[in-house]
Amino acid sequence: MSNFTKICALSDLIPDAGIPALFNGKAIALFYVNDEVYALSNYDPIGQASVMSRGIVGSIKGELVVASPLYKEHYNLKTGQCIEHSEYSLMVYSVKLEGGNVWVA
Predict the structure, then answer these.
(1) Per-residue pLDDT tens for 19-75?
(2) CB-based contacts of 15, cutoff 8 Å, min separation 6
(3) Which domains does the chain have, with CATH numbers?
(4) Residue 92: CA atoms inside 13 Å, Cβ hemisphere, count?
(5) Claim: this prediction has a pTM higher than 0.90
(6) What is the DSSP string of the chain?
């Protein structure tokens, strides 16, 4: 796991919600949904603020999404792609769960 960094304990996460974290000096948003952890950029490119960790988790057409708390655009948790505006997306980070901890690369 040389390129992965330990971010937090899995027990620090809140089911079906997001929390902000720092990874290599960048703000990321961690979401714990259906026993999976997703890591995305915390920066909303449309609202231009670091708020994605405060977004509401849900699903659209069977795909897990987070709705921006500012203008309510939906971003796919797996791909980071904005549903409403294809020209926008969030950076997605690789996540591993090991030893009860969350690791991000």
Answers:
(1) 999 999 999 999 999 999 999 999 999 999 999 999 999 999 999 999 999 999 999
(2) 32, 33
(3) 15-96 (2.102.10.10)
(4) 15
(5) yes
(6) -TT-EEEEEGGGS-BTSEEEEEETTEEEEEEEETTEEEEEESEETTTTEE-GGGSEEEEETTEEEEE-TTT--EEETTT-BBSS-TT-B--EE-EEEETTEEEE-
